[in-house]
Amino acid sequence: MTRPPYKAGRGQETVWKALHQISHSPFSKEIERAHLPGKFSSPNYVMYDGRADPIGHISHYRQSMAFHLGTVWKVLHQISHSPFSKEIERAHLPGKFSSPNYVMYDGRADPIRHISHYRQSMALHLGNDALMCRVFLSSLGPMSFRWFNRLQHSSIHSWDELVEAFVSRFITNCRKPKEFDSLLLMRMKDSESLKSYCSRYWEVYNEVDGCTEEIAIKTFKLGLDPKSEPRHNLSRRPAKSMRDLMSQIEQFVRVEDDRTRTTALSTQGQPLKKPASME
Description:
Retrotransposon gag domain-containing protein, 2 domains, Retrotrans_gag_dom, mainly alpha, Non-ribosomal Peptide Synthetase Peptidyl Carrier Protein, Chain A
């Protein structure tokens, strides 16, 4: 008599699937059978496509899983020889800390500006050196992360030391502030709109260090067309502050925009709307 094929019940199917997974998995039985945290939520991380730097990928993954490092990862970490000191690596991080959103550093941007943005995003944790250091790695792109991995073992003992090393390496990318002469050379071009001149002027002004309001007002006026109405108005009623200057200029910009719209309508042959006559 032929024995019918074995059919597992519902509960047994789960057992067999688990045994099958363990028997074929590259992981050990201890890893496969380990209980994962009940409230664990998978972090956001970059998928490995098989072509990127594997060491950089592992480093980024470790950072995203910083609060869940197990025994295996601790062993791998000891082998990797972290540039951080033992005190930073062994420090207990806040249990409810959630990583903020920040811009990734690509190795070409201004390092001082990147540090400034990072400090703003971590404003509530500026006093925690270990946290500032370890989370900072998550803001590094592949190029800058390779730089970090090449640092001497246990050479970083504080957040200030990390900032100094980072800025020193990428200092050639720093944007140099423009000289005061840049404002003196500003001139309104022929047929240039007042709005366009304002945009160019304030862009240069924001890149000049130590420029007072008095100097800004004078250089802005000097750059205007000597025959223009805004220049004459500023001569008759000099601006007392930057706010006063902007208020005066905005009035002329509105008039200029209105003239531009009127000219455009007349060029297109569209009659201007007149108010309805009262009967």
